[in-house]
Amino acid sequence: MRFDIFSDIVCPWCYIGKRRFARALGQRPDINAEVAWRAFQLNPDLPREGMDRAEYVAMKFGSGRRAEEIYQRVTEAGVAEGIDFRFDLIKRTPNTTDAHRLMLYAAGGGAQEQVLNRLFVGYFTEGADIGDHDTLASLAGEAGLEVEPTRRFLAGDQGRELVMQDLSLAYKMGITGVPCFILDGRYALPGAHEPEAFQPMFDLALQEAEPAA
């Protein structure tokens, strides 16, 4: 079975959802899942260089108190998944187009999962600016890619059109929030659900894969 997972690297619930999905798969050794991570942008109108985090939070949430309440809820959910969210370390909210391009590049080298993990940790735990090419190349290197070829890739525009195609596909499918898990191009499960929520999808896919009597 194939899962196409639409997510954005600056989405904390995508990080949580990734951990929960991995736990769901771990509970089902009978499942052989092919996983592809697809691009989505929560903030598609951000300038290419991103923006100051404090300015972004004020624009998105209005009051600091509301932002604190939301981040506290996310932080508590993260603890249960072994994630140490450090929103206080994030100084810039990036435009994630280049990070998604990097994900496509990593997929070509069979390292998409490793790179995504490193980007999530870099951004949410270390406060890394994942809109910066040097930072992206360095994180990719730590995830197993060669740094200089990665840097050269990011310096160009290769992969940008594919990212736009993912975004367009998400909008056509009616996806307005992430993570969103698409099974075999037909069934969708939006949200960062607990592992139990994935079990009916797994069962359905297995049933459909059984040969007719």
Please describe what this structure looks like.
By secondary structure, the chain is an alpha+beta fold. The protein has helices at residues 12-26, 53-61, 64-80, 97-108, 112-124, 133-142, 147-155, 160-172, 199-209; strands at residues 2-7, 34-39, 51-52, 92-93, 180-183, 187-190. It has one domain (2-209): Glutaredoxin (3-Layer(aba) Sandwich), CATH 3.40.30. The longest helix has 17 residues, at 64-80.
Distance between the termini: 21 Å
Low-confidence stretches: none
Bulk shape: globular
> Strand-and-helix sequence, N→C?
EHEEHHEHHHHHEEH
CATH H-tier superfamily: Glutaredoxin
* CATH class bucket: Alpha Beta
Named CATH architecture: 3-Layer(aba) Sandwich
Whole-number tally of structural domains: 1
The largest β sheet comes out as:
4 strands, mixed
Count of helical stretches = 9
Taking all Cα atoms into account, the compactness measure Rg is 17 Å
Helix content: 40-55%
Mean pLDDT equals 95
Category by helix and strand content? alpha+beta
How are the secondary structure elements laid out?
Layout: E1 2-7, H1 12-26, E2 34-39, E3 51-52, H2 53-61, H3 64-80, E4 92-93, H4 97-108, H5 112-124, H6 133-142, H7 147-155, H8 160-172, E5 180-183, E6 187-190, H9 199-209
Question: Can you tag this structure with a few keywords?
Answer:
two-stranded antiparallel ribbon; globular; Glutaredoxin; 4-stranded mixed β-sheet; single chain; 213 residues; alpha+beta
